[in-house]
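Handoff note, outgoing to incoming analyst
You'll be picking up this chain. Sequence as last confirmed:
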Amino acid sequence: MFKIIKREEMAEGTVILNEIEAPLIAKKAKPGQFVILKAYEEGERIPLTMAETDPEKGTITIIYMVVGKSTAYFRDMKVGDSYQDIIGPLGKPTHIEKVGTVVCVGGGTGVAVLHPITRAMKEAGNHVICIIGARNKDLLILEDKMREASHDLRICTDDGSYGRKGFVTEELKDILESQKVDQAVAIGPVPMMKFVSRLTKEYGVPTLVSLNPIMVDGTGMCGGCRVTVGGETKFACVDGPEFDGHKVDYDELMMRLQAYVEEEKACYNDYCRLSEKG
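Most recent structure output, in case you need it:
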């Protein structure tokens, strides 16, 4: 059993942070890797990238958005409750090296995934510029941690309620036009990663993205997480989750994700009705 020792609600309660006791995973995990969690025997397996690890405390931190039945169940778990199973670390860790100037771009809960990568890039000796975005100020997460993890933090909100009004790509374009950038990392909604990658390709900047296809077993057996990268089929769980952003077929990825949206909404509504009935 994996006990929750800290719980925090973020982004108006739609995003939840859990710090969980998992000493063996915390000892081995590296930036960019993920875990699969299951709350109870019949529960769904949910893959989540670790936002932080603490080998000394033996804990990992996950941050997730409540979007369906299983994450709604996760949301109702309290400090002292336990996940039945957590497996990991899974996936390939981010390749970290000193390259010069690195721009890290995060949107929504992708900021949580971006945090350990940004910090590692800075610790490797890179000059790190970070851009984080959200629809509005209340939905922005981890501002203080991202400021600490980077040399220069830029903030964008769609409605202009905080930071620059507009999309992260607008701030990124200003940076690309004003200075040499050696690498970019983009993590967030698929459309955001698509347009960041399209922009960095114009300027010849290598770009990493972290993909979030539907995933079941996390070992490459089920094939649910397949994505097309450079015209080849890859499995995000074992070949990724990070890939060359200039080679990803984002339209195919979005179509596969969209196929599950209506089913997920229906499951979430069923869970809410059952919860109200007690």
